[in-house]
Design brief:
homodimer; 203 residues; alpha/beta; Rossmann fold; 2 domains; DNA-binding; Response regulator transcription factor (chains A, B); DNA-binding (chains A, B)
Chain lengths: 203, 203
DNA sequence: CGGCCTTACCCCCAAAAGGGGGTTTTTATT
DNA sequence: AATAAAAACCCCCTTTTGGGGGTAAGGCCG
């Protein structure tokens, strides 16, 4: 029997999952939390094999929480269960130690297949996410940490000069990064750049 | 017995709702659809009293779909059930004829209370949304249709001149709108304007 | 019928962004 | 040790934006 814990703030969804897993013969729910804080308190006690983790938690980012869990409990397999099917989110989640990724509109049988696979130490991506990760590279934009930092500052409305002062670089360097970001994302100007950054969850 | 239909692409969530309602004594589920298209085919046949409607449908916006339903079946009470708790979305949903608004992290008992209230012809807002709607006016920004149109074009990266050509106005007029949008949203520049527009779901 | 909001228009000028072309150094990864 | 990528820097010039001022017609509502 696979021990499963769930962290998601959508109470209706956790109830749905709970009964779905309860009806199966391969897994059992050992705990449910509705926030990262609540989960931290009980995780050591629950000792799950698999943790179903939502990215959009109310208190901290699921990305950071996944990292935290894998550091403290490397033996737990994290299976992300979210509404996002953006490349940047999936990639960061896997980089942070997640073993699998399901999107919430997946079928019930994909959830069970995912639980079984990650419990056995395999990596599991649901169909839609699998397709996403295999897309041609030019559609799956990936930025360096510095580029993401700059993108964030730009989206906060700082000018090149202000950014330069804040991170102790030359304004000309910032211009260079900005031009490169426009090029990489194929954006016409800052308005589109910010829109794409948010849509693709790059910031 | 209240007849309830559900439209939501998150299959796990619809299953959770189905069992939640099935366990109650006041309502029964007469149908479930996972897209607007699927719902259109069956709605006349199901004849529900209450329709639980997700805003984030895969095919069309739940906002438009709500309007469509209320035009064709004004006797059905629409209860929005979504992840968004942005003023602009709630307001448009209610303007389009919805009788109530629940966010997905609401408790199970709020869902049942909502179904009961809207079936009785009342308006129902879950606790969090109720607080949101009662906030001071300056926090709940509302734009005229023209302003929203301009905001959309700006976020698509069009310059003042390009917008002027597209909607047959003087570039100076566009400048005026742009300045006013910056003022209304309290944005420093276009980057922040676009970010706020997306975050507050104004476009 | 007098506000008030929306829509639409205009000028001046400074600041910022964008298009084009480059160079160098450090840091991974093979 | 070779190479690739990231990070940092520079100049010229044009277009676009933003800050500051305005004006005025038409609709809505109490």
């Amino acid at each position: 029997m696979i021990n499963v814990a769930i962290v998601d703030d959508h109470k209706i969804l956790t109830e749905g999952l709970r009964s779905l897993i309860a009806e199966s013969t391969i897994a059992t729910v050992v705990g449910v939390a509705h926030s990262a804080a609540e989960c931290r308190l009980s995780l050591g006690f629950w000792k799950p094999d698999v943790l179903l983790l939502d990215v959009g938690l109310p208190d901290i980012s699921g990305l950071d929480f996944c990292k935290e869990i894998k550091e403290q409990f490397p033996e737990i397999s994290v299976l992300a269960l979210t509404t996002h099917n953006e490349y940047a989110i999936v990639r960061q989640m896997l980089d942070n130690g997640a073993s699998g990724y399901l999107i919430k509109n997946a079928m019930a049988d994909e959830v069970m297949a995912g639980i079984e696979a990650v419990a056995a130490g395999e990596t599991f991506l649901c169909h839609e996410v699998d397709l996403l990760m295999k897309r041609p590279a030019e559609k799956n934009i990936w930025l360096s940490p510095r580029e993401r930092e700059l993108l964030l500052l730009i989206s906060e409305g700082l000018t090149n000069t202000e950014i330069a002062e804040q991170i102790f670089l030359s304004p000309e360097t910032i211009r260079g990064y900005r031009k490169n970001l426009l090029l990489k994302l194929g954006a016409k100007n800052t308005a589109v750049l910010v829109k794409m950054a948010i849509e693709q969850k790059l910031i």
